[in-house]
Design brief:
The protein has 13 helices and 21 strands. By secondary structure, it is of the alpha/beta class. The chain has a domain of about 200 residues: FAD/NAD(P)-binding domain. It has an eight-stranded mixed sheet with strand order 7-6-15-16-17-14-18-21. Helix 1 runs parallel beside helix 9 and helix 9 packs antiparallel against helix 11. The longest helix is centred in the C-terminal third of the chain and has 23 residues. The structure holds flavin-adenine dinucleotide.
């Protein structure tokens, strides 16, 4: 079917669904094209830790009733290093802020439910193939998309490219290699989801000679656990018993063991495209940047981009004011680079490169002990962990 709307959104991940919801709340018509089918999207696990600002954004958008009831609030984190379990009181160090554990899968389902209730159009299995008229040429922008073997068009004023790292929006921007900043880490994460109550009610980050480990959760009865593994590790490589022993050793706890319902390997990458707009096309979320999962920032970054983009579009339609839209890339990048720095810093501090020398290990230990022993070291971690503010104006 050929369609027409004000904002054409590519991708029904957290970025696309949230943008759609906020625009709808302000009377701005939009349609989402999503490559996958609905049940795939509703099952997809991924992230789980939300910054305070992310939770507030979902609440303000009116999709947070289940989040308010089902969330697990964390006021601190545990850090296991040199065989000692330490706790950083993130709430105290950040002046009263906290983080929330609520699965990306859950908030995705909540947003799809709301969209369906309000009859916001999500076209499932619709793959955007080509973008036309994205320049300021006085024509409507067009998304050419395929659906069940046929080609159709979605005509719109603006295109929001919320189509993740492998989408078509970023490659449709006029960019060169000079606009891309990318780093591949020399290790990956081996993650499991287990039907077992998490041993600690807050996350545990472990620095261990045999490699990083993390205890997290997706609910009171579901543990999400990770260990560092070499790049290219096969998801079937580790036996359950070995994994539990390794997790206990590295985390310095005796985990509750339960049925492992999923195993997966995630590579670690940092990536930024420093052009996030051109004419009528704006990209947001993983389409523009990737962080290694160590700082738990992927979904939070996507939400922050959407906050800026939605405000820009609302000002455009309601006040005929394009100031925020014109500065979209600049406003987002100012925060993105700091979040990239934090994610890279936590990753390189806690992981062990197999070629690492003893001096580097000592530097990692000193970095961790500075975080734990110094008020300012702890505050710096906490400020980043609970989420940095969006700075709307240039610093004078
Ligand atoms: C395996 C994995 C595990 C992760 N774990 C964590 C974690 O533990 N903690 C954390 O903070 N972050 C994690 N992340 C990152 C986090 O999930 C992402 O940052 C977040 O999903 C970004 O949201 P998004 O909406 O920008 O992109 P996505 O969620 O990727 O959504 C993009 C959507 O666009 C659709 N799409 C793509 N191309 C097209 C097209 N041509 N036409 C139509 N639709 C298209 C895709 O199907 C997808 O649904 C993980 C990511 C992955 C891949």
């Amino acid at each position: 079917m050929n369609l027409k709307t004000q904002v054409g959104i590519i991708g029904a991940g957290p970025a696309g669904l949230l943008l759609s919801r906020i625009l709808h709340n302000h009377g701005i018509e939009n349609i989402i094209l999503e490559n996958r089918n609905e049940s795939y999207l509703r099952q997809r696990l991924r992230a789980g830790v939300m910054e305070q600002g992310t939770v507030e954004t979902f609440m303000e958008a009116g999709v947070g009733e289940k989040l308010a009831k089902g969330k697990m609030v964390h006021e601190g984190i545990y850090i296991h290093a040199k065989g000692i379990q330490n706790r950083l009181d993130v709430k105290e160090l950040s002046g009263g802020k906290e983080v929330t554990v609520y699965g990306q899968k859950n908030i995705t389902n909540d947003m799809i439910d709301h969209a369906q209730k309000d009859e916001i159009q999500i076209v499932w299995e619709a793959k955007a193939q080509r973008l036309e008229h994205i320049d300021d040429d006085g024509e409507s922008a067009i998304i050419h998309y395929s659906l069940h073997g046929k080609m159709y068009t979605l005509e719109c004023d603006f295109i929001a490219g919320c189509d993740g790292f492998h989408g078509i929006s970023r490659p449709s921007l006029p960019i060169t290699q000079k606009n891309i900043y990318s780093y591949e880490f020399p290790y990956s994460w081996y993650g499991i989801l287990a039907e077992a109550p998490p041993i600690a009610h807050e996350v545990i980050y472990a620095h261990h000679p045999d490699g990083f480990a993390l205890q997290s959760m997706r609910g009171p009865e579901l543990s999400r656990l990770y260990i560092q593994c070499p790049n290219g590790t096969d998801p079937g490589a580790y036996e359950d018993e070995w994994l539990w022993d390794e997790l206990d050793k590295r985390l310095g706890v005796t985990n509750n063991r339960g049925n492992i319902i999923s195993k997966g390997v995630a590579p670690m990458r940092s990536f930024v495209c420093d052009v996030m707009q051109h004419g009528k096309l704006f990209i947001a979320g993983d389409a523009a940047h990737i962080v290694p999962p160590t700082g738990a920032k992927g979904m939070n970054l996507a939400v922050a981009d959407v906050k800026v983009l939605s405000k820009g579009l609302i000002h455009h339609y309601k006040d005929k004011d394009d100031d925020i839209l014109n500065r979209y890339t600049e406003i987002c990048l100012r925060r993105i680079w700091k979040v990239e720095r934090f994610s890279w810093w936590v990753t390189t501090t806690f992981h062990v490169d197999e070629n690492q020398d003893e001096f580097t290990t000592k530097m990692q230990e000193a970095t961790i002990s500075y975080m734990l022993d110094s008020q300012i070291g702890g505050q710096s971690f906490a400020e980043n962990y609970v989420g940095l503010p969006i700075l709307w104006n240039e610093k004078k």
